[in-house]
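Q: Second attempt. The first request was missing the SMILES, so the protein and fe (ii) ion are both included now.
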Amino acid sequence: MRTTIDSYKKRAARLDLDGIEFDDFRDRPLPPAALRTLRYMHDVEHHTVCYLRDLLLTPAHQDPEITSFLSCWVFEEMWHGEAIGRVLEAHGEEAGAPRIAALRAHHRRQQALTTMSTIASAAFAGRAFIALHMTWGAINEWTTQAGYSRLADAAGHPTLRELLRRIMKQEGGHIDFYAAEADRRLAESPRAQKLTRFALKHSWRPVGSGVMPKSEVDFLVRYLFDGPDGSAAAARIDRRVDRLPGQGDLHLLRNAVTKLAPQSVAA
Ligand SMILES: [Fe+2]
Ligand SMILES: [Fe+2]
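A: Got both inputs this time. The predicted holo structure:
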């Protein structure tokens, strides 16, 4: 069943933190690898608004259903970042505004280039850009949800598991919208299929790659998508991409894991 924008708007909400005891992390801290992953996720969740700024400079802003979705989506993602920030703070780490401001200052030049590149791509692609944007969004949301699930298993912390379960539920709402829109828009336009396939094949990188240092992207891919369970999660995402019109056999996740964690693939 296709999720409509109306049903998503009714469900969109600030993340429910009732009953989440953040002090649990002071008594029972997370392992270093899980904390490193959460720093990445905190920064990427909070970066969503910058991604939105770029998207609103493209034809996406002309579609009122998409702008309604994006308005709710950016709100939910911001609260994901805030919740993860509270986990970091419970470990005595800086989170929220000071950390985000420092990250944005550091990446100011890179962000200007990203913005210009998005505008140029949209000008070239026209309305087909919306199909690409929806497809890219679906893949990012699939990857994010799978990453949270893998982190919950790897960290083995009941409070984190419950927090991530609630975040993953909202990521599921994002997936429903992006994937349905991608499927419909790609099915309608062979040109959109070709452009999307070309862009994914040549430019797709794991979510956060444009903001986070390569060392952190490499670590994250290895930590979350290494081993049999990680490989199975990556393969599931690739199969979902395969089912989108004109996007078969791209193997985006498999290629990313091979490139960023070659030793784990060879093992
Ligand atoms: Fe999120
Ligand atoms: Fe999301």
